[in-house]
Amino acid sequence: MALSPRFFSLLLAATCPVFAIAQDSRSAGQATRAKSALLVVDAQVGVVSGIWESTRVIANIETLVNKARAAGAPVVWVQHSDDDELKYGSESWKLAPNFVPSAAELVIHKKYNSSFANTDLDQRLKALGISRIVLAGAATNWCIRATAYATVDRGYNLALVSDAHSTESMKLPSGVSVAAGAIVAELNAVFEWISVPNVRTEVKKAVDIAF
């Protein structure tokens, strides 16, 4: 009679304490898998219309939104307002036409670069039991960077979606121009290499993100 792999697992667990501990650890790891939320930052008309490779980035954010919804993961939208180009309620302040939050999805309004600054985002995420944030949106060198650092500083695991954030090229006071693609690549590299206690960071393409 052929014996199943399950039988051998039970036999080893009963006769080999080390194997039993390994099995328990594996089960615990599966049971404590991080609960993820998608955080879409400033996907607004006045922001994404001018970013580098806007069409591709918007399509990748749409892919992430569809994945998160299909997996039952929360989608959180962040909208920036100021007294200049993104006045609250203006056309440029509105989310881009591709993005329509559902009635159940959170919309966070902010006035600073970090999505956590003077908002209740942290409390909302904790109330949902979130431990991993999948981050996308704009602009890379401003609100994405600030939100990414704020995320890991608060102890959340972070998945920065390498092809779902972008910005515009910028000219420094010295006259040197920095290409948008280089800004995106630099932030992706930072969060591949960064080391934060008890926090895991990932940098993945939209197609490889799982919720």
Automatic annotation (TrEMBL):
Leader peptide range in chain numbering? 1-20
| Residue ranges of domain Isochorismatase-like in the record | 36-167
Record key words, sorted: Hydrolase, Signal
GO MF annotation: an example: hydrolase activity
Q: Which InterPro entries match?
A: Isochorismatase-like_dom (IPR000868), Isochorismatase-like_hydrls (IPR050272), Isochorismatase-like_sf (IPR036380)
Q: Which domain of life is it from?
A: Bacteria
This protein is called what?
Nicotinamidase-related amidase
